[in-house]
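User: My instructor asked us to take a sequence, write out its structure as tokens, and then describe one feature of it. I'm not sure where to start. Here is the sequence I was given:
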Amino acid sequence: MDNLITLQVNGESHHCPKNTFLPMFLEQLGLNPRLIAVEYNGEILHRQFWDTTEIQPGDRLEIVTIVGGG
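Assistant: Let's start with the prediction itself. The structure tokens for your sequence are:
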């Protein structure tokens, strides 16, 4: 368990390996990156920064799925 970190996703506790970057974590959650918006530690995180954002212990993510319809 030493190589796992704990973070909050939409108010729930989750674990991921150290050195996990945001796109990999989103994939582990089964999310389509094209259909979500991510708030990272209280701020909307622009997609251009996703590839360089490494998940850290205690991070707080709010993930919103975009739903289309009419």
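For the description part of your assignment, you could build on this observation: The mean pLDDT is 93. Try explaining in your own words what that tells you about the chain.
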